[in-house]
Amino acid sequence: AQSVTQPDIHITVSEGASLELRCNYSYGATPYLFWYVQSPGQGLQLLLKYFSGDTLVQGIKGFEAEFKRSQSSFNLRKPSVHWSDAAEYFCAVGGQAGTALIFGKGTTLSVSS
Amino acid sequence: DAGVIQSPRHEVTEMGQEVTLRCKPISGHDYLFWYRQTMMRGLELLIYFNNNVPIDDSGMPEDRFSAKMPNASFSTLKIQPSEPRDSAVYFCASSPSGRVTEAFFGQGTRLTVV
Q: Residue B92, class by beta-carbon neighbours within 10 Å (0-12 exposed, 13-18 middle, 19+ buried)?
């Protein structure tokens, strides 16, 4: 079955600390992986995506993610978190054009001062 | 481009009433998706279209839900009759044709059925 698991429902980090959000996927074909961010009352904004090639991908707002095929993981990282990063983060997996994205349940990030 | 446009942003209706949600995809995008977001179930795909044709509607919960795409620039999601358990945020997303599906989301419609 195709699925995405985000094990952490809620994470709190201190401003300036590093961040890692976990994502594991199950997908029968070549996976294409995405991270989206959702601020309260807003739609989903694409942070970064992995299609092929270098397994470490850079995104907007200083985020990066690493694809590890052996672990079926695509964890999101940021070296230094800012208060404005507080939001909900979604990992998603998709396939070839013509397939819909499958989303994880999301991880809510809180940033403490 | 203005992005994916959804209307209304908020809708409050009484149980039993008909509700119509609207979406204008990004110009030139061939795919249109409707998702529903709830606390319990997260983001669920309801239905998606390719070139105005429904491809997969297996996520539509009941016959009370229907979706149409009469042309490349407009889609509707209709619930008739509405029930309190339909309360959720409904997102429309569109995607260009190409090698991989990458979805661009609208702001969503928050539906409350009382």
A: buried
CA A103 to chain centre: 10
Q: For residue A88, list chain B residues with Cβ-Cβ distance below 8 A.
A: none
- Taking contacts as CB-CB distances below 8 angstroms, the residues of chain A near B99 are 51, 96-97
Burial (CB < 10 A; 0-12, 13-18, 19+), residue A97, is: middle
Q: Which stretches in chain B have pLDDT values below 50? A: none
Length of chain A: 113
Q: Which residues contact B34 (CB under 8 A, 6 or more apart)?
A: B23, B45, B46, B47, B48, B67, B75, B77, B90, B91, B92
Give the angle A49-A54-A59 at the CA atoms, nearest 5°.
35
Mean pLDDT by 10 residues, chain A (113 residues): 93 97 91 93 92 91 95 97 96 83 95 94
How many angstroms away from the CA of B1 is the closest CA of chain A? 15
